[in-house]
Amino acid sequence: MKYFTPRSYLVWLAVALGLESTSCNKYFTPHGQATYTKFQIDSTLADDPTFIRLYEPYKQQLDAEMNRVIGYADTALTKPSGVPETRLGNFFADALLAEGQKRYPDAVFSFGTKGGLRIELQKGNITVGNLFELMPFENELVLLELSGDSVLQLARFIAATGGQPVSGLRMRIDKGKAADITVAGKPVERSRTYKLITYDYLANGGDNSRGLSNPVSRINLGEKVRETLITYVSEQTQAGKHINTQLDGRIIHNQ
């Protein structure tokens, strides 16, 4: 399924306005005599009926896709501050791992950050637009193969930041330190490697993440994170399931 993006919006708008690009130039250039009018962009600017008629069919198509219901949440997926584990974070990380494992079954855990999740999902219908709002960025999935030492460094980052969205990894935070770290149900071994599903922003050092900068190997999967979420929710629905993510103690914070 294809989704509207800012770039695709600009393409159809340029075509509609009579602009086109040359074969070796990605920029649009006007044909004929160009004229310019300066408008003050504020509340006094009246709607232009001609322009509205121009874009309204595309807006209706976009609105229909964004409002399309693809799933149902049995409980609100929230991300309260000051807690190490959230329903929204668990849902997000579980979706990344499930989708990543379709292509790489030996991927054993996933990782994201709380700051990248822009909205909470309320109980009830989940639309395509909800998931665009949740992850509005152009981030793409990445498979990283990490050494055991890098996994431990990542766990220390998670502990120092009070917990982050993970799946397949479990740990305890004790006075800001990582303890009892397991991946796929087993203690982390420094001598082996582990395959992680995350996204390029974090793999490139975003959010000051630690442990991801020196992977044994890296594969860019070429799939937008929001497309992953849409696919995950849609397939749960096709299987007759609702989204019912719960807290399961994957990260515990000792006071």
TrEMBL record:
SUPFAM superfamilies for the chain: 5'-nucleotidase (syn. UDP-sugar hydrolase), C-terminal domain (SSF55816)
Q: Name one Pfam family in it.
A: 5_nucleotid_C
Occurrences of domain 5'-Nucleotidase C-terminal (ranges): 70-209
Recorded hits in InterPro entries, A to Z, give: 5'-Nucleotdase_C, 5'-Nucleotdase_C_sf, 5_nucleotidase/apyrase
Per the record, the domain of life is: Bacteria
Protein name (Swiss-Prot/TrEMBL): 5'-Nucleotidase C-terminal domain-containing protein
- Origin species, per record, is Parapedobacter defluvii
